C-alpha cells in the first residue's frame, strides 16, 4: 500500500517484516529508547509515532515531521565534532539533552570532557517541519491495511499539509535569541534541519550572506536529506552553511533584538484576545 506515512515509530512503512501490532502496543521510539513522546491531545496515553511523511501531489517530497528523527545513528553529533575546537584526543564526548541558556532551552549539547571537567561544547537545535490538518486518519488507514483492528475517526478526510511559514519564522526567532549567547561565549550553535526547510528559508529570508560553513562563525546550519535506501529511509548530510549573530538578525530584516521581541509578543497576545479578555470598567 502507498501510504503518506513513511515511518511509524522509527520503522519504515515499506518493510514487510514488521510486527506492527507489537509496535503500536509498545509505542517505543528506537532513537529515544523510550515511549514516543508525540501523543494525541485528546488521548495523551496514545503515542502518534509518525516520524516522516510524504507531502505534495505533483512533486512528492520526503518530509521529516518529528525532530527526534534526526537522532538516527547519532550522525548529526558526529557531524559537529569539528566545532569542538578545544577538544583533544583522550577527552570524553558527552551528549547532554535540554539545557536552559539565556534565550531559551537548547535541545542537545555535545560536550568535550577531560578529567570530569568540561573543556568545550557545541549547542545543537533540531527542527522538523510542523504539519497542519490531520495525519491521524492516514496513520489509522495504514495500520488497518496491515491487518490491525484500529479505531477510525468518523467524518475525517485526513487532509494535511506542512506549515512552512510558521516553522521557518519561529525557528529563526528562536535562533536570534540563542546565538547571541553562544557568540558571546565564543562557542558554536548548530541548527539541524531538513534540506527542504533550509531551501525554504533561503527563499523567504535574506540568506544571501549565509554561505559555505566557516569555523569562525557562531551559527551553523546542517541540512539533511531523508533518502530512501531499499525499504528503509536514512538521513544524509546534504549541506552546511554558517553565519553569525548579526547575520541571523539581518536574515530577519532586523537591526535590534527588540524588534523581534515586539513581533513575537504581539502575535502571542493576538491569539489570546477574546471577549473574556476585554477590560470592563
Can you offer a commentary on this structure?
This protein has 281 residues and is α+β, with helices and mostly antiparallel strands. The protein has one domain (5-271). It is 27% helix and 32% strand. It is built from seven helices and 15 strands. It has helices spanning 20-26, 75-78, 136-145, 164-185, 195-204, 245-251, 257-272; strands spanning 5-8, 11-12, 28-29, 34-35, 50-55, 61-64, 92-101, 104-114, 117-127, 131-133, 160-162, 188-194, 211-212, 219-229, 232-243. The strands form four sheets. A seven-stranded mixed β-sheet has the order 7-8-9-12-14-15-13. A hairpin with a 5-residue loop joins β5 (50-55) and β6 (61-64). α4 packs antiparallel against α6. Mean pLDDT is 82; it is low at 255-262.
